[in-house]
Design a protein that fits this description.
single chain; about 350 residues; alpha+beta; 8-stranded antiparallel beta sheet; 3-stranded antiparallel beta sheet; globular
Length: about 350
């Protein structure tokens, strides 16, 4: 799975086609940048108020629930607990429920309980080191900890739940969904201020609304899925407004061990890094949280299974970049991916 998506590397999967800041007599486009979730963010919006403090506070609040790199975060407290914790029905709970829904749709190929395996392969919050000698027995042990169906939720009043795990070694990682969720929370914040034209990007995951400073829809570039591609090397571009867009891929975040490339995308069903001819998956959805998680689910599933799953999914568009038998880049796009009439 794409459970190290919080790293800086994933900003290269999408290249936002930027525009210079312009202003008119009444309002201007603010451009706020910074670091969050182990990566960077870039936010542009047309308005009459600087939201930098509010944005930073909201991102800090989301991190305090979802970051495995913060020892006191909600997810870290769950991971280190013996049997689970009581949580409010806020960020952690929302990500848990959404993850379970996608887990069911993809028959376990999307599963945030894969955290112990991600740590084993050196892509998690523990020490990042190469696996030189694969311990198959340990992998099988860790794989037995995986499964969203192992986690149970017991309501406590109207506003809280007890999230139970039967084994203290079970751990969660929402890094395949948290950046998209963070994007949505910032978009929600901007909307509440009454601003209608904006683009929110965290580590390459995006939500765009309204128009850009040039008066047209926001143009998002999809990076060429090659290990040596430059950030400005784009294979596709798409205009969006009123939608989220996320991309996942295997071509950047990997290491070589004993002559083999091991990627960060771990298959929950096998316990091993997943490598297939599907090089990247871009998803347009009604919110970035959904797009983020689905992009990972598609990468784990591979091209054929992903194309089949599209029959079950509504209100999304996809662009799959894959390699044919000759190693040439090929592109599969759902009918509405380029259909601007279907994009608000």
């Amino acid at each position: 799975m794409k459970l190290i998506k919080l790293s800086l590397i994933f900003i290269f999967f999408l290249s936002v086609v930027s525009y210079r800041q312009v202003s008119d007599q009444k309002t201007k486009y603010f451009h706020i940048t910074g670091e969050t979730m182990g990566t960077t963010f870039s936010i542009k919006y047309k308005g009459d108020k600087n939201l930098e403090n509010e944005i930073n506070q909201e991102l800090s609040r989301v991190n305090d629930e979802l970051s495995t790199y913060i020892p006191t975060s909600t997810i870290s407290r769950f991971n280190q607990s013996d049997s689970g914790i009581v949580v409010p029905k806020t960020d952690f709970y929302i990500n848990l429920i959404k993850s379970y829904d996608i887990y069911k749709i993809f028959d376990g190929r999307y599963d945030p309980t894969i955290m112990p395996l991600v740590n084993y392969w050196g892509f998690g919050y523990t020490e990042h080191k190469k696996v030189e000698h694969i311990d198959t027995a340990l992998i099988m042990h860790l794989k037995n900890l995986v499964g969203m169906d192992k986690i149970k939720i017991q309501p406590i009043g109207d506003d809280s739940v007890f999230v139970f795990k039967p084994n203290k070694e079970i751990q969660l990682d929402f890094s395949s969904i948290a950046k998209g969720y963070g994007v949505d929370k910032i978009a929600e914040l901007i909307n509440k201020e009454g601003f209608e034209n904006y683009l929110v990007e965290i580590g390459g995951e995006i939500y765009a609304a309204g128009i850009n400073p040039k008066g047209s829809k926001w143009v998002i570039g999809i990076n060429t899925p090659s290990e040596n591609a430059d950030i400005a090397d784009l294979i596709e571009e798409v205009e969006i407004s009123g939608y989220g867009l996320a991309t996942s891929g295997n071509y950047r975040n990997y290491y070589e061990s004993n002559g083999k490339k091991l990627s960060h995308t771990i298959n929950p069903l096998t316990g091993f890094p997943e490598r297939s001819n599907l090089l990247s998956a871009s998803v347009i959805a009604e919110n970035c949280m959904t797009a983020d998680a689905l992009a990972t689910a598609f990468m784990v599933s591979g091209l054929e299974k992903s194309e089949s799953k599209l029959q079950e999914l509504k209100n999304i568009e996809v662009c799959f970049i894959y390699a044919n038998e000759n190693g040439e880049f090929k592109i599969f796009k759902s009918p509405g991916f380029d259909n601007k009439k279907k994009i608000k």
